[in-house]
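Exercise 7b. Backbone tokens:
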């Protein structure tokens, strides 16, 4: 990697204390640039190349954000990037407004009512309950340690993106499941709540495979982006039950409210039901 890129990444790592995942994403994103000081035409060609490679608009925008961060840093301006900046930047691509995949209420009832027998099945069941009850990301659930669960006050501390911790409440029902699991399998405070036989971190792909197998065993096809669909389902249910979008933003750990507002578009059936009540023609 070119020296200027390395300097940018080093400053982000040691001065801004960004996470290792962010550092890796900077490295991946800057590889799309042909030089340390790209021209406007070269920036345009980088986006064209990404599209030709089959990248979706959302994937391109993730790269564009990293590249724009580098371009702002390279300009030497200390303040936050904004309207007053004159350096080159890439415009974000328009992203399609897709309906995010969720589990249906019937599917949720089947998953909750499932009676696991073996330890690995109980671990899988607990994982799904945590995802459904807290709306956390799969990586946040898999890296959760026993010491981060406050069973007395029904609170869990999650390690989110960018090393940002947040405290999220959970239900009495989830507390029962967590308490039984900790007791039955002698989970010590310093251990991961859910771990492999060797006490190592569970693999995301392994858990995805197990969830999909269970869904098919229970008689339904799992939704797309299955593990993240638990998070979508939690968010939609939260809004349906009258939860605030602002509170939901804090629970999900979103940096902007715009990210959270996407879930408001998922409640089409709810909007239809409301329309039947308020329609002037139905009066």
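Sequence design result:
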């Amino acid at each position: 990697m070119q020296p200027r890129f390395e300097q940018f990444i080093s400053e982000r790592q040691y001065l801004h204390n960004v996470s290792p995942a962010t550092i890796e994403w900077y490295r991946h994103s800057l590889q799309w640039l042909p030089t340390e000081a790209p021209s406007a035409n070269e920036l345009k060609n980088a986006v064209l190349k990404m599209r030709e490679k089959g990248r979706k608009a959302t994937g391109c925008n993730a790269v564009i954000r990293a590249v724009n961060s580098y371009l702002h840093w390279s300009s030497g301006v200390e303040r936050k990037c904004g309207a007053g900046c004159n350096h080159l930047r890439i415009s974000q691509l328009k992203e399609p407004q897709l309906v995010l995949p969720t589990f249906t209420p019937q599917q949720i009832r089947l998953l909750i009512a499932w009676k696991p027998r073996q330890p690995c099945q109980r671990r899988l069941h607990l994982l799904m309950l945590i995802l459904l009850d807290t709306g956390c990301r799969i990586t946040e659930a898999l890296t959760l340690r026993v010491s981060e669960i406050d069973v007395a006050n029904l609170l869990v501390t999650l390690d989110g993106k960018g090393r940002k911790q947040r405290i999220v409440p959970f239900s009495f029902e989830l507390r029962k499941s967590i308490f039984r699991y900790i007791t039955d399998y002698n989970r010590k405070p310093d251990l991961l709540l859910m771990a492999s036989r060797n006490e190592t971190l569970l693999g995301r792909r392994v858990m995805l495979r197990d969830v999909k197998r269970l869904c098919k065993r229970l008689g339904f096809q799992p939704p797309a982006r299955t593990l993240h669909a638990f998070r979508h389902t939690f968010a939609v249910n939260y809004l349906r039950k009258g939860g605030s979008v602002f509170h939901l933003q804090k629970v999900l750990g979103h940096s902007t409210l715009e990210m959270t507002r996407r879930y408001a578009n998922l409640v089409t059936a709810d909007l239809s039901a409301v329309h039947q009540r308020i329609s002037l023609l139905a009066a």
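Instructor comment: The chain has two domains: 3-75, 105-273. The longest strand covers residues 155-159.
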